[in-house]
Design a protein that fits this description.
InterPro entries: Aminotransferase_I/II_large, DapC_beta/gammaproteobac, LL-DAP_aminotransferase, PyrdxlP-dep_Trfase, PyrdxlP-dep_Trfase_major, PyrdxlP-dep_Trfase_small. Its cofactor is pyridoxal 5'-phosphate. There is one protein chain. This protein has helices at about 10-20, 45-55, 70-85, 100-115, 130-140, 165-170, 190-200, 225-230, 245-250, 265-275, 280-290, 295-315, 345-355, 385-404; strands spanning about 30-35, 95-100, 120-125, 145-150, 155, 170-175, 205-210, 240-245, 255-260, 330-335, 355, 360, 375-380. By secondary structure, it is an alpha/beta fold. The protein folds into two domains: about 5-40 and about 295-404, Aspartate Aminotransferase, domain 1; about 65-295, Aspartate Aminotransferase, domain 2, CATH 3.40.640. The longest helix is centred in the last third of the chain and has 22 residues, at about 295-315.
Amino acid sequence: MNLLLQDLHPYPFERLRQLLAGTQPNPALAPISLGIGEPKHATPAFILQAYAQALQDPATGLAAYPATAGTPALREAFARWLQQRYGVAVDALTQTLPVNGSREALFAFAQAVVDASAGDAVVVCPNPFYQIYEGAAILAGATPFYANSDPARNFAVDWDSVPESIWQRTRLLYVCSPGNPTGAVMPLEEWRKLFALSDAHGFVIASDECYSEIYFRYDAPLGGLQAAQQLGRTDFRNLVTFTSLSKRSNVPGMRSGFVAGDAAILQKFLLYRTYHGCAMAPPVQAASVAAWGDEAHVQHNRDLYRQKFAQVTPVLAEVMDVSLPDAGFYLWAGIPAHWGQDDTRFAQQLHAQYNVTVLPGSYLARQTPAGNPGAGRVRMALVASTEECLEAARRIARFIRQSA
């Protein structure tokens, strides 16, 4: 077996399962889970119809092997969406590739990009973070380095905390904007800083943007390709962005997304993916073309989240350190002072007494010399109906007031 597998950390949801395994939740209350970020809004009917029609068509059904690069129609749909959403022009056939959801691609990308032959490769990622970044780094033979987020700056990552000696060894940098779990969006000046570091040290930037279409202010979040274009980097050198239909279009089970950016890197990534066997099923490609071509359902989805967060956030803000994020569907909430930093005990007792599941923030971060930036916080995924989320918020408020 690959000995690097033993260096992987348990996944946050496995740790949560173990934490709650010994508790008996209050049977008088129906369970409500805010733990997993799995979209629950209805999948638009036109996407399901496109999938069903393609499944019945011999040309787009399951009777032939699909190309790893996807159909020209699919990649042209990616390019049209990037132009419409960000005002960014890309060559559909050299600067985009389909992927089976951003998670799969974020992991595979490190395996293709990181050269660990020298034995000192580093992958830098935010802290707290999406654990796929860490696992991808470890299995690529690199050492993860965790750059802590700063609560005083709306949880923006403190890239200045990364030593020069680390940047010199960095092969890959993961960024996530809007961030998971904090919802923070990277401004243009932050991109300028990272591009300068990439130019100085030659590392690749992987920009995870799967939450880009769920936002609460009227200015859509800045994207990595958009930032590069505004700064004159129209070749998108050393930059690849990752996006997905899962959150945007409520199709997490379809496993559909795409990557876009530096053509030279994507040429090599396509070679890797051809050997890896990562082709997207033809019916999924057809349904994806339909999804990327429609914005009405995206606006409706965004409105549902806006209404939900507008009702839930004030209830929780009365008892927790929490506010509306820039984007995404998570609330990143600080637990009350009388709980100290014990977010795991908070989550365990909330589950036992009120049958509400939240994810301890410390499970989403790693200990650093400056501490664990997730300690004392919990992540709440507001993916269920407004009624369920509001009921969960009221239970949490009662739990906190009774525990004071």
